[in-house]
Amino acid sequence: MKLENERYEVTFVEKGGEIQSFTDKTTGIQYMWQGDQDNWSGKNPTLFPMVGNTYTKDYEIDGKKYAMKNHGLIRYATLHCKKDDGKEVIMELDSNEETLAQYPFPFHYEIAYTLDGNTLNVAYHITNTGKEKMPFIFGLHPGFNCPLCEGENFEDYTLSFENEEHMQQLVFDSTNQTPYELKDVVIKDTACSYDEVEKYATIIYKGAKSPYLTCMGPKGHGVKISLTGFPYVAIWTAKKGAPFICLEPWYGHGDFSDVKKDFYHREDTIVLEPGETFKTTYKIEVM
Predict the structure, then answer these.
(1) Angle at CA 24, nearest 5°, toward 4 and 41?
(2) Is 194 strand, coil or helix?
(3) Structure confidence by residue, pLDDT tens digits, 150-203
(4) Which of 277, 5, 257 is nearest to 119 (CA)?
(5) What residues contact residue 38 under an 8 Å CB cut-off, 6+ apart?
(6) Distance between CA 91 and CA 112 in Å, rounded?
(7) Which of 32, 101, 112, 142 is an S-S bond match for 90, by CB 3.0 to 4.6 Å?
């Protein structure tokens, strides 16, 4: 599966419905992280129906316990290609015996890609095909190569919001013993920092108003992701020296400590009525 124009080529795989590559044919730059066992084997998974996991790694629906791996179902599933005509790629997944054993709600999931110049547009449709209300949390986890060019370092890159942001940062206890705290922060531009990611495990901001977040290197190459509609944005890399960065728009987050509320009422949970469809979009622009 491929989308291509004179300058850029984007390829896709049915495993997770993910982007396999986003390449500038002129410069040879590969923007997407390709995954490896030394740092992070993931690439750009969709997080559904959970971002992270519950505190206990399981949950209860109607008296029965269920459990999913970290970040839910889609990243581990093989999707079906519904459309691949050179202009649009659409992949889909319907709930099945395997998904229902982990998440007892029938659903139809679609991800659609189109390429417009240097911008990849990504659209998601999630429909509750069952007869009961369907609770879920949704997020994205795209990984980008950082640095992109020879002679650059991770710390040479700058993260920039479109506007100066007065946000809150979720600061959580890595031992999961105490609830997270909200810290007020003011940020416009900040350097990529292994130390900052290591300090917080994952940097999570709540309430950004900027439509975009850019990660730009000293030679003028980088990526820009859209944030519109997403209440959170997370920044993560695996460890010091890992040559990638994840810029992650989220609708909600997993548990950072013991949560007493049921699965329907966890913080930021979206609940779809039977037959209702959740729709959201985002963009990846490369430079």
Answers:
(1) 95
(2) helix
(3) 999 999 999 999 999 999 999 998 777 888 899 999 999 999 999 999 999 999
(4) 5
(5) none
(6) 7
(7) 112
